[in-house]
Queue: 2 jobs
Job 1
Amino acid sequence: MRLHETSIALLGIASSALATKKPNILFILTDDQDWHMESMQHMPFLQKYLLHEGTLYSNHYCTVALCCPSRANLWTGMAAHNTNVTDVYPPYGGFPKFVKEGWNDNYLPIWMQQQGYNTYYSGKLWNGHNVDNYNAPYAGGFNGSDFILDPFTYEYYRAFMSRNGAPPVSYEGQYSPDVTAEKAYGFLEEATQHDEPWFLTIAPIAPHGDMRQALPFRADMPRYHPRHAHLFKNYKIPRTKNFNPEKPVGVGWIRDLPRLNDTVIEYNDEYQRARLRALQSVDEMVEQLVKTLDAKGLLDNTYIFYTTDNGYHISSRRMLPGKECSYDEDVHIPLLVRGPGVPPGHTTRAVTTHTDLAPTILQLAGGYRDDFDGAPIPLTKEQLAGPSRAEHVNVEYWGMAIPEGKYGRELIYGHGKVGEIGTENAARNNTYKSLRIQSDKYSLFYSVWCTGDMEYYDVLKDPDQIENYYGEDAEKLKSGYEIAGRPFEQVVNRLDALLMVLKTCKGQDCREPWSALHPSGGIETLEGALDAQFDKFYAEQPRATFTSCELGYIADAEGPTDHNTWEKSTPGDELKKRSFDYSGPWSFWT
C-alpha cells in the first residue's frame, strides 16, 4: 500500500473515542536531548509513565540537527529545504525568517485551531524570538502561550517570558524548566475548563547548555536545580569506539580535530552529568502531567508525545559538546507516544522522522493535507503490525558547526581567540546532504559534503560510524563488500540517486522517493532498486554535488537538481529525464 493511501486509510485511527470526542494531545519537546548517551535511561518517571505505558520509536530521526530549523520541520511537516528556515538566526533562520516565509500563518497550531482545538504553548518556541519582536507579529496559532525569549533563552536562572503577547516578564532567580512546567500546569487547568479538545506543547530548555547570548557572553554546561545536585556523580559517557578515538575519523574539519586531553574529557563527562540532572525537572514534570490527566479522567483520551528537537554529541570523534552533524548521535533521537490504542511497553523499529509528526497530530485531530513531505506514523497495534514504512531518512544541514561549553570558546577548532564573541571559533564548511537507510536487512549512512568529501558507513557492521568506505581504508573495506548480493559501487549509485531526489523533493517525492526514480512503480526499497537490470540507469544518473559551501539554503549552490527516471515503454525500456524548478516555496503554502 502506498503511503498516501495509508494516510487516508488511517483517518479512523482513534477508533470510537475519536468519533465521539476528539482526543487531547500533549506534546513535550526537550532541547538537545541525546539517545546515544542514554539520557532516557536516567529518567525514571519517563520510563514509568511513557516507556512502560506507551510505544518507543527506536528508529526516530530529526532531519536537521539544529533547533530552529528542526522545529520548523517538526511544526510544518516540510523538509528544511522547503521551509527555507535553515539556521537559528537571520538571514537564514530564526523567528523573523519563519515569519518572512509565511509559516506563522500556516503551521500545525493554526491547523489544529481549524480542527476545533484550543492550543497552548509553554517554553521555547523559536530562536530569534526575542524581547523586541515578541509581538511583531505575535506567534500565530495559540489560545494561550508563555514564550521564553532571546537573548535570555538559555539562561537557566534569568528567563524572560511573554504571556499571550504581553510585554516580557523577568523570572530572574527562578529555575527556567520549573517555570515552564508551572506555566504548563496552568494552561492544562485552563484547557480542561472548556468542552473543546486541546493541544498543549511544553518546551523546556533542558538539557541545552547554559548560555548568555548578550555581553558578557557565557557558554557552559547546563545548570541544574540544587535538589538534583547529588545525582549521577559516577556517570561517565559510554566509551564507545568513536569516543575520542586514537586515530582521526570522519572527513573535513572533523578529521582535523586534535585528540581530547584528560582535562577536557573529565569536563565533558561532567557536562553530560549536568545534562542528566537538568532533565530531572522535565522528568518530574512528566509525572505531574500524567497524574493530573489521570485525576481529571482525561488520560485515556489523551495522546502524549515525548521527543526533542535534535540529538547531541560529546567526545565522539574527538568533538566537544555540540550538534549540527549527521551522525546518529546528532539525528537519532527519542520519540515516545502514549495514548488511545497505542500498545503499552512496546518498541517499534518503524523508521520515523520529525517530518512525520505534524501529519500524525493533524490526522489525530481529524484533519488531512496532501502536501506534507512526511506521512503519519503508525500508532495502534494494528498499524504497527501493518505494511512496512519507507526505510529512508533525509538529513540536511547548511552552515557552521559550533562547539559548546567552556572549551568551545577556545582555539579548539582552529578559529578565533579565547573569549571572542560570535562564531569565530566555529567549524566552517559544515554544509552537507546525508541519507540514512534503515531496514531489518541493512543500515546505511551516505553523505555528500559541500567540500566534496563523502562518507559511507555500514551501520550494522559499524554502529559507531567510524569506518568510512571513502577513507584511507577504502579499498580494504570495499573488497568483497555486498548488500543484497550487489557490490559497493552499485549500492552507492542507488544511494546517490536517492539523495538526488531527496535534496530537492516535495510532497510525495519526499515520502516515496523511489517512485520519483521509478514512476511506473514496483520499486519501494533499496533492495528492489539493486536489481541488475537497473545498473546502467543508475550509473548514468547525475551525481549529488554542491557548487559552493554556503551558510544557508541557496538553490544555486546546491548543484544539479535533475534526475533520470526509469519508465517502461513498448518495445523495451527508455530513460527519461525530469527537470524541476525548486527556486522557491509552493505558492499556495504562503
Note: Residues 262-295 form the longest helix (34 residues).
Job 2
Amino acid sequence: MAEKGTISIHTENIFPIIKKFLYSDHEIFLRELVSNAVDATQKLKRLSSLGEITSEIGDTTIEVSFDKEKKTITVSDRGIGMTAEEIKKYINQIAFSGATEFVEKFKDKGDAKDIIGKFGLGFYSAFMVASQVEIISKSHQEVAEAARWICDGSTEFEITEATKETRGTDVILHVAEDSEEFLDEWKLKSILDKYCKFLPVPIKFGTKEEQVEDGKDDEGKPKYKSVTKDRIINDTDPLWTKAPSDLKDEDYLNFYKELYPMSEDPLFWIHLNVDYPFNLTGILYFPKVKNDFEVQKNKIQLYSRQVFITDEVKDVVPEFLMLLHGVIDSPDIPLNVSRSYLQSDGNVKKINNHITKKVADKLEELFKQDRESYQSKWNDIGVFVKYGMLSEDKFYDKAKNFALFTNTENQFFTFEEYKEKVKETQKDKDDNVIYLYTTDAGKQDAYIQSAKNKGYDVLLLDGVIDSHYVNFLEQKIEKTQLKRVDAENIEKIIDKGETIASVLSKEEEEKVKEIFEKAVNNPSMNISIESLSPDDMPVTITMSEFMRRMKDMAKNGGGPYAMMGSMPDQFEMSVNGNHNIVGKILNADNEEKKAQLAKQAYDLAMLSQNMLQGKDLTNFIKRSIEMAAE
C-alpha cells in the first residue's frame, strides 16, 4: 500500500490561517495532541461499553516522550486507532472533526459528551513547532493494518503501510530548529502540568524515583529502597467531578492547596454542580482578600471536559467575583477555534447569572446559620459583597439582607438593624437620617469623640472601594445621607435646626476673623466664625463632603472623577466664637500675642487632620514648649 495525494482544505469551514497563526501560544500544541489522544481513548471506552468491542481494552495510559538527539516529541495513545482510510478522512480534511462525527453517530446510544474534540483543528497545531509530523496508527478493528502518514506542513502528504503491534496512535513531531526549546524535560512537564493536570485518562511522562519500604533492619526499624516508577502527571478524578456529599472539608482544603500552594486557607467554598439547562461543575473558593485587587485576579481556571482553557474568565464569572479562586468546568461554554479564549453567547450569560445566584445563596446561608462566624469573616467577605452590590442590582437585592455595617465599637448591624439604631438620634431638621462614618478611626479620633459626646454612632468605612460604596448607599437607602465625621462641625453635620447664641458681638466676630486671617495667611482656607458649644473644638478644619468624596473616588477609581483629583484643595475653617480660647485671643495684651494664640489654635486643628507637617510642625512644637513655660 502506497499513496500520495493532496490534503483537502475546506475554506468554508475554517479561516485560511492555520499552523503558525491559529494559536497565539505555541505551547498549546501539546495540549491539543494530548487531548486528541484522550478523545481516542474515550471513544474506545465508549465502544467497549456499548458492546462494539468484545475483547479487553487493557491499559489505556497515554505516554508523552521526547528524544533530544533525534529532535522528536511523541504522543502515544492506546485508543481507538485509525485505518489508512480514516487517516485520510480525519487528518487530510482539515476541520473535519472526528469527535463531532463520533458524537453524532452515537447520540442516540447514550452520553458521548466525554469526547473533547470539536473543531478538527487541534492536530495541525503540531506544525507550529514541527518541521515534519508523522502518524503511525493501528485501528481497534481486528483485521486492520497499521498505517503511516507523514507531512512537512505543506498540503502534500504521504501515506504508507506501517509496522505497529498494538492498537492506538503515535504522533511523532520532528521539532523545527526555531522550536528546540520544547526538547526539554522540564519545559514539557510544565506544559503538561498547566494544561493536562486533570485530564480523565492517565498520562505518563518519563519516570520518577520513589522511596518504598523494604523490610526491617536489625533494630526492627523499616528500611527503604529507591524504585523507579512511571511519572503520571495528572489526576484523572479531580475534586469538582465528585459529588459534594462524598467530600469532607479536608478534601476541599487539600485541593485548594494543590491549586494554590502558597496561599492561606480559604474562608469557605461553593461546589457547583448543574446539568440543566447547561452543564457546569466546579469549585469556587473565597480567599482572604488583600487590598491589591489586580494581584488577586485571574485565579479562577476554566476547563472544558477537564482540559485547561484559560484563567481569563471575565465573561463567565461576574466582575465582582473575579477575586474568587477555584475551577469552573463546562462543555457548554463556547470557545474560539483554537480553544484559547471564550466567545460570548446565551449560555455564558446564563452561567454568569447562575454563579451570581449561587454565591448570594451561599452567603445568605452562612449568615443565617452562624452569624457570629459570618461576622468574624466580614473583613474578608465584605469586599466581595460591596463590590457585587455596586456591580449588579440583582445581587444587591439579595445582599442587602446579609451585608453588614461595622461601627467604631466593632459592633455589626444589618442595614435594617442600623436604621433602627440611629433613626431617631441622628435625624436632622429636614427629616433625613444621617449616617456618620470614618475612613481612618485613628486620624479622625477627635471628630469621632465629638460625635460620641452627642450620643451619635460612627460607622467604619475604610475599605478600598468604600468611597464608591458610600455614594451608592445614598442612592439606595431612602431619606438617608452618609457624611464623614470630619466633614464639618458635628452640629452642622447633623443640623437639628437648633441655634446657639453667640457670646461675641458682630464687631468682635469681625475682629476675630481678621486676627485668624493674618495668623493663618492661607488662601485655601475659607474662614468663618460660628456660634457653637463651648465644649466643641476652638478651630475645626474640614473639606466639604462633596469635594472630599470626589477626590477620594478620583484617587481610588479615576474615570469620570479623575479631573477632581487635580483640582486644588479648598478647606472650610470654622472658628468657635463661644470657646474660651477665642476670648483669650480677644483679651490678649498685644497683637503679637493674639496672633500667637490664633496660630496655635489653627495648628492644633491642622494637627487633628494630619495636615501639619515639616517646618510648620517643628514651629508648632517649639511654640507649644514656649507657651507651656510661660
Note: Residues 346-369 form the longest helix (24 residues).
